[in-house]
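thread: overnight batch results

M.L. [08:02]
morning all. the overnight job finished for the chain we discussed friday. pasting input first so we're all looking at the same thing
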Amino acid sequence: MWHEERHSRIRDLLRASGQVSVERIVTELGVSRETIRRDLVELAERGEIRRVHGGAVLTGDEPPIDVRHATRVREKRAIAKKVAALVESGQTIFMDAGSTMNLVAEALAARSGLTIVTNAVDVASRFAARPGNEVHLLGGRFNAQIGCTQGAATVAEIARYQPHLAIVSPVGIEAKSGASSFEMEEAEVARAMCANARRIVIAADHSKIGVRSRVAWCPADRIDVLVTDRRAERSRAIDALRKAVGEVAYA
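M.L. [08:03]
and the structure it wrote out:
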């Protein structure tokens, strides 16, 4: 089977199911696992797909939350520690929902003197479980699948705060379109947080670098610090991001 034909078949499988495993691609195409891995790497470098544990998803499509929690945990934990080092006692901080934000909350929860404003139940719970910090859980329509509040009421409530930092995590980030997400309501929450914060910190592991998702919510030149892991240095997109954002910090 020709190289481009394999790529076309992989795209068809992804369009049909949203997410596909390496094992299924191998079975469907009748080629080796190593060949499929090389194909997925090439498609990911083009920005057409995003690799996840055991397979791939189309760019912009988020895998289920339980899959995200189990993916690239080591990198995300390192990023979380780096983000925590940027936070000072006495600050008010916006934090949105997601697997990376849960680990940032874990890294920050032992600190004291912080005011956390979040739409994520897990993030709020981590801080509320320890004394010394003030936690505000934003109201709005509850999304049980993600464990967060969303919608017009959430966005309106965000406007009441003027925090020191917005710490947010996108589906993708690249120099031209900035930070972006697949779901409109997630993007609206992130956009409102960035609009009202004095400084913006983006937490994004290497798989999100150079990725453009469906809804852009923060231009690259508005980002003060992009925190990512060292594998991002291999991405072709990182050089343009270094020029566009205020600072790139590696975990």
